[in-house]
Amino acid sequence: MQPERRKMQCDESVPAQVAEWVAERLPSLAPLWQDGPLSLRRLDDEAGRRQEACAPSAWRSLTFLPGQSADVQLLDGQTLLARSSSGGCRLEVGAGLRLDYWGDFPRIALHLAVIEAIRARGVLMLHASGYIAPAGGGVTAVLGRSGSGKSTHLLKQLAGGAMAVAEDTLWVDMRSGECTSVDRHVRLLPDNVHADTRPSSGREPSPEGIKHLWNIRWHRDMASSPLRLGAIHYLRNFQPYPLASLPAVAQAQYLWEAVGQPLLPAARRSHEQWVASVILGRRVSGDAL
């Protein structure tokens, strides 16, 4: 599989394995790439060490999963350094997006940098499942922490005729409301798969060895029209409720838990505007915050 050139430009120094891994994590939202693609380049180890040695301040450690962490710091408002046990990377955000990396495929550092690159272009990563109801309309996003029942709830909706958009991560363009996902499976504990909602095909152990990966039909496999974010629900005791039914403070808590805190200043401001806009039900400018 070749990386989609509209999304990414790769230097000849980048191994195909790395290029494909990065390309698979870039959601295909057209507005994301209107300022140009992401340029990916591999530096030699000596150049990488020089990058790390020039870091002016203390590193901040971020943990994603047990045993998976990266050190990060901002060089300025548009440049981010990240390093992990197998190497590091430097992200520059300006008129274009440039990502240089060094070492032996530093997945954790690259994962962090790719997310920040996408956020810097006004697209947020919503920790949510998503589906289109049988009657049509926009995408219903269902917020919930890991283990809250998002995947099980998604299967129940599919059994009722809904179309799946996202299992765990929904990418949303904050300007247009267009959304998509790069999820490929539904991840479920074996005990949570019931006969009335069991996917029709495919099951294999997940990489972490606890859940199973199930194949389902995704909306993107059946239609190419742009999707828009519609309702936002949250799960409580495995039941969905409209987010708008909560007080504003509780809505903000759910939304910030779902989108996370960007590292780059401009991305933080755009996320703040989006959260405020969802709660107030109208577009909010930066000056109004």
UniProtKB/TrEMBL annotation:
It comes from the Bacteria. This is Uncharacterized protein. It comes from Pigmentiphaga humi.
